[in-house]
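Before the break, one more example. Copy the sequence into your notebook; we will annotate it together after we see the structure.
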Amino acid sequence: MWDKLEDQVANEFESLDSDKSKFMKKQFAKRVYTGEIHFIWKEVLDDPWLEKVYDEETRRGRGFYDQATKMMKGRHYTQTTLRSVMYLREMEKYFDLNRIKWITDFGPGYGGFIRVWHKLFTNTQYQLVDLPRLHQISQHYLNMYDIPAEWNTLENHQSPKGLSLFMATHSLNECKMETRDQVEKILPEYDYIYIVYNDFCDGINNLEYFQYLGAELYNTHTVHLYFDKKATHKWRLIAIK
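Here is what the structure looks like once it is written out:
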């Protein structure tokens, strides 16, 4: 799937001049970086974190203007921001977010989750693991917010320092098996793991695969697998060491 998409998305980004704010209107960027928003919006509508993480900058030429945007009290929220708040609320049911010192975001999109985290929590190191040509997208986005991070491919992944979280939301489930095999080798290094996945992708049965992965992680972690039927209608794997 991503053999072609990496170049298609990177080419769209590179085709723009110094003003990248319209990137999310491009065909392939819109396809891979946005999703359904209505049920997520309903889930987080009254969340107090929305006061801290709104996307007002998208109206001032800063950040990426996401067409899937909701507005409340004059403030704008991209699909990525709303989804990030919802993910964090799910995570905090299983572990203390304030204690985390290292996050590896595998397949981080344009970096929106890291921006939201950085607004809410401090003293965290970030590693964004992505395909080589896609690094420039999240680098551009996070640089606009002065958020320092490391960018690596899976081959030069850096082991976490301090209490750590590995997250892969709609990313590991889209990888070929060879890539998944590589990821499996590094997961035991992490204290917490949070993965969102769908049922099938490119002929791979993800329900079977993540059941297998959960069983493997039982050697080092306590594992929870469940289906979110309220907002995303996708599955979760959460592991705690």
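The first helix runs from residue 2 to 15. The mean pLDDT is 91. Try to locate both features in your own notes.
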